Amino acid sequence: MKKFSWKVVLGLALLGFSRSVGWALNKGLSFPLLTSYSRSAFIKGTILASEGIIGLIIPPLLGYYSDTLKSRYGRRRPFIMAGGLLAGIAALMIYTAYSFGVPLAGFALTLAFFYLSMHLYTAQFRALMPDTIESGQRGKASGVITLFEWAGNLFLFGLAGYLIAKAVAVTGGEGIKALAQTPYLKIPFIITAIFLIGAALFVYFIIREPKAPEIEENEGLFEYLKSIVENRDFLKFYAAQTLWWMSFEFIAIFLYGILAYILYGSASEANVKAVTSLGLMLMALFNVTVLIGALPGGIIYDKLGRRLSIILGGIIFALPQLWGWFISSRTEIIIALAIAGIGWGILMAASYPVIGDLLTKFEREAFTGRYYGFFEATRSLPVLLAGVIGGAIVDLAGENYRILFPIGALLVLMAMPMIWMMKNLEVEK
């Protein structure tokens, strides 16, 4: 039995907070910055989708190798240290590339380096929780970590919105254009770098990993991938997660385009920049309601059952998207995103511990790195699919961004029967 440690949970929560600040920087500023280079939803979506390609490959591979790493510094912490340092440097490089006016290809490569750095330690961050927390208490830990993760998003979106408001007051311009004309643009990138590097150092020097279990029969890379396909519960969960994350990424990647289309009738560069402040405010609001849903989601997971908590969160997240096809005002957008955030918070807190519990059930807890690496791949694949497919759908629909709402809702609802049919999802009391 692993003793429950709040120090470990809070250390992981701090790491999750810093990583969320980094991903929020990407979600909040990359799309409007790319709009300065191109209006095409397909081009911007494809560049942002490079994160999906990297996340599809790197976490499963490095998660696999971290399981067998023999180091006096642990199996996960060396990756966390290296990834956090590089990610902080990459965040500063994004600002530098944009401020120096590098061509689109150079800016896209800088974003890709940031994505690579972040994914160097994605699987290791995820694996540390089930490595250190006993099954039956993981819902509580997941609720706290999820709370901090989405608080990181809220912090960055709130900071960026505040800075844009100050920039607008100084320049008289609008949105991201005004921010780019002032020294304020560098602030989110500098703060993100500080959090990424600081949290990695904290975990590396303060958190101690438990002794690595002896692996008597290590899986080869091919056998590990094959075992996922052969075990229907893992396969169903990974497929379901791919669907609901793709739904999320449709909205997250193209939020500015959606807002511009609904409120102004088109997603022109001027309209996208005009809704940047509103988009950041809505992202902040969404994260507030995610926080509201996260802690109850963790409690429901431990107390009332895995299936119920996941399906409840999925349905609450999907219903506002069905309504999204008919939305026409700012007030309706705010209400829909607020409701969706509660559902998403429940869904995130309830889905995070599932892989760890399945590994406990099948007595494979030595392999948390590789299975959480695949877990992260099924969160990254949707970025690739949503960016490319979503951008193509929008372009084919005559830049009608509203079409992404019903498609996203359908994907979530398709995932729910897969969760219901998992045979080993519940754990014995």
Automatic annotation (TrEMBL):
InterPro entries (alphabetical): MFS, MFS_dom, MFS_trans_sf
Keyword Transmembrane helix set for record: yes
Superkingdom classification of source: Archaea
Pfam family, one: MFS_1
Keyword Transcription regulation: no
One Gene Ontology molecular-function label: transmembrane transporter activity
Keyword annotations: Membrane, Transmembrane, Transmembrane helix
Membrane-traversing stretches: 46-66, 78-98, 104-123, 144-165, 185-207, 242-264, 276-301, 308-327, 333-359, 380-397, 403-422
Residue ranges annotated for the Major facilitator superfamily (MFS) profile domain, each copy included: 1-211, 241-429
Name of protein: Transporter
